[in-house]
Design goal:
The complex is a heterodimer of chains A (305) and B (289). Chain A contains twelve helices and no strands. With 305 residues, chain A is mainly α. The radius of gyration of chain A is 25 Å and the shape is globular. Chain A starts with a helix and ends in a 7-residue tail after the last helix. By secondary structure, chain B is mainly α. Chain B has twelve helices and no strands. Chain B has helices spanning 3-6, 11-21, 23-45, 77-112, 115-130, 133-144, 148-175, 178-185, 190-226, 238-243, 248-253, 256-283. Chain B is elongated. The chains are: A mainly alpha (305), B mainly alpha (289). The interface between A and B is large, with 44 and 38 residues.
Chain lengths: 305, 289
Amino acid sequence: MLLALSVLIFILLRLTPGDPIDAYIDPNVAISQEEMAALRARLGLDQPLPVQYFAWLSQAVQGNLGYSIQRFDQTVAGLIAQRMGPTLLLMAAGLTIAIVVGITAGVVGAIRRNTLPDLALSVLALVGISSPAFLTALLGLYVFSVRLNWTPSGGMLTPAAPFSLLDLLHHLILPAIVLSVGYTSLIMRYTRASMLEVLNQDYVRTARAKGVKEFWVIVKHTLRNALLPVVTLIGSTIGLAVGGAIFIETVFNWPGMGLLLVDAVGSRDYPVIMGATLVIGAAVIVVNILTDLTYAVVDPRIKVA
Amino acid sequence: MSALTLSASGPLARSIVRFVDNRAALFGLAVLVPMLLAILTYPLWLPYKPNDIDLMAMNAGPSATHWFGTDGVGRDVFARTLEGGRISLLVAVSSVVLSTAIGFLVGAISAFGGRWADAIAMRSVDLAMTLPPIIFLLVLASIIGSGIWSTVVVIALLSWPVLSRMVRARLLELRERDFVMASRGMGAGMGHLLFRHGLPNSIDILVVYATLQVANAILLEAGLSFLGLGVPPPAASWGNMLNAARSTAVLEQFPWQWLFPGGALVVTVLAINFIGDGLRDAFDPRADL
């Protein structure tokens, strides 16, 4: 899958408008056809495409993704390495909030099904799924930063201030909550549906019949089994969170991969676009594999072959 | 509606009854239909055009003359929201038509076309589903360029894989049914199998997918335009109107310029999702059991 992804990205890279050689030539210097051909040969651009692909791949695997066209002297790998941390931090915070709130709300909805709290939660979840991340982000920014002035309006740290954890958290809290909104809704809906299904199982009735306390019926007998599909959901939709992170980083000026990618697309910086895409795509594939493995841990019926 | 009154009617009638019984779906219709009417007919009754400039009222707040206020160059936000709805829906519906056609064909061919066709089609589906949609969208948009029709193509190219998986699953099951075997035995060609047997038997999947995908496509279009890669100004779309809010002045001082298109976006998507969920439940033959 990773190889297929790399082929796809390489093809896309070559489909990008413009000759890659243009980036190497100073437009103010006259250059002859022979010199062009020599340069092409030196850069390997006269080779057939499959040869170019393997040359690119062997470099990419070693962490050499080329140089940024727009930010001179910056390697793509270096840029990505700088931006990876903030994005991981944002996503970890957002996912934690989403998992805690989503599962709690889902369990509450399932236990008190068809009551007022359940209906309210369901409607909220639908609104959460229907509102795009950038709109939630704008609204959050408007309410909490502009009107209430509780949180800073962007960035990750206060510029020119000494680093402090509190400052970081202060900048992190709003983007993380916004990122979690859509995910929370999704997790809540899944947890609720899956809880309802398990609550109807015979073994839950058996547990109740033998006098297990209701709290333990919910936590041990129902929740543990109901969480299986939720684990899959969290892993397999990680791409959604990545997508949301792109918009949120743009709105909050969060110095992560998403902002890097959007800036690169804006300035047509193709090596950076492709490098970032490759890294994000690879990360998503790895998370999906990890999800499958986690599944085997959570569900004793599944054995990893 | 009780099961007794249903038993005499046909499956389609039963589906309709189930849909009408669904309060959320009806609510969705009740919101969407007036909205569509307003969007389609606004040039007939609204005195402002989306690109008319009123220099006497720049950045004016909502008032009796300009219901949703005006933007930075004095264009009526209400007119632009309606025009934006037109463009957003145009992009969404065209991309859905395109992706439904691709999704059905790929799914059907991989179900009926033999092992190799299946393997190739399903691997390309896997590949297309690997990348997070927004990222793929960004990369494609950066290559194809911005504009209404390239936005349509980009969104369509991205959304067919899910559908083709569902169609394939349905048709694989169908392929083994007696009537399809009989028809193959009598020499029916691919076209006959696809459109006489495949299409009618997966129409429910297509309808539900298409409805929910319209909502999805509206969100994707808005996202792309928000990042400045979708529908380019001066044309209005909900996404590029929200793009204006990336400037701090607009975000802080003129909230009506982005709150109204944003609200229209969420309400429309919500309504379509309600209708789509209602359709899915209505088509599910197990619902009455």
